[in-house]
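Assess this one:
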Amino acid sequence: MTAGRPAAAGRPGVSGQPLFIGGAWEEPDGGHYDVIDPATEEPVGRAPEASPDQVHAACAAAREALGPWMRTPPEERAAVLGRAARIIREQLAAHAELARAETGATTATARAMQVGVAAARFRRYARVESHEWAIPPQVDEAGPMGPPAVLGALAGRRPVGVVACITSYNNPWANAAGKVAPALAMGNTVVVKPAPQDPLSVYRMAEALQAAGVPPGVVNVVGGARAGAGEAVVASPDVDMVSFTGSTAVGRRIGEVCGRDLKRQLLELGGKGAALVFDDADLDAAVAGIATTYSFYSGQICTAPTRVLVQRGVYERLVGQLADQARRLPVGDPARPGTVVGPVISAAHRDRVEAYVETGRKEGATVVIGGERPPLDRGFYVAPTLLADCANDMRVAREEIFGPVVVAVPFDEEEEGIALANDTDYGLIDYVWSADAARAFRVARRLRAGGVGVNTVGRNMEAPFGGFKRSGVGRDVGSYALHAYSEVQAIVWPGG
């Protein structure tokens, strides 16, 4: 194990990125593998393959560091997070370039929504907040427990312990920061297992935290392309909680493993967001919001409004406008100014998305636009695709495609629209577009989803985030993340 980080590790032309374990940079037992740029199909760098033993060492390091870190004054923990935010911002351009190359996101998205959001999240949790509150005194009559007494009480949030943070590939910066920052703020230590497709950005985050003065073992990063690293961190007896963002299938497996040892879980899983568009809606605004599915991360985002339920009076107009919007979106090199739609993460995922489009065609959907691979020489591109005349029982309307594909389903009355929206295994974020505010909020309250956007696809970053049904367990973001990464303790004493 080496005390410092090799100056160029993880960059093209060198041996590869080391792991970060116990405050030191360590060569991986399993060697390295290539991280591929989805736009060029060329290697971006070499990522490490951690062995189970190295994962266990990282978890043990986090366990050893837990006591001192949880006893560190909150102001000092906050100062570390604030310095990390500043360090990340100072290197925003370089970090965004790596994120763009790893993920295929456009340069603007990599800067603002990946690295920029990550820095903002560290800055948010650099704020010191009270985690204790008084409970009204209780008068106890004489009884088996003793004489009459007035009992005072205090409740407070305490760290869970060692948190395994398993991150998604669609936003390695923001997703990792959204787990690591609140967990550290609450006094937990973390072991981060980044997604195998784009892990290098997460190691840059570890560098920033190390430079900011995070003590050895408080943050550890161990990754790999094989399943062994993730399985080892979830099963480790040193891990008290698993925070995972990814597919429902993997989330179920994590839940099974955690259930055996009663480990805490925070699971942010799949989505099939319904967008209900009523006939009095501002169609231009609705189209602009729904069309983000085509462009934002090329549809690789669980909050996308992919299942569009349109009242029949405006169905044809909305389908036409969505098709026109798709035609106008520049598809191509995400590094080029003006590009809106970049590639999906891999060739395998491109094939999966294309297979869904073909399945929709066979099920009877009309491919209004898209459905063919863009005429580009290289890169894992999928054309923005609109499937119309769909029914809610089609696979393309029920399963998460995770690509730039929108399906449109007509409905007649409000009750039918609500029923269609709720007829799904998922329940992460839904959307309602209507000029009638009373109806919009009435409908929103009846949707079985963790969040509902009314006439917007925007997010309030203090609002709780999480899903109903198979979209996950628990809530995070804002102060809700501090709750997620803590346990509640009550202290009771005599005397009121």
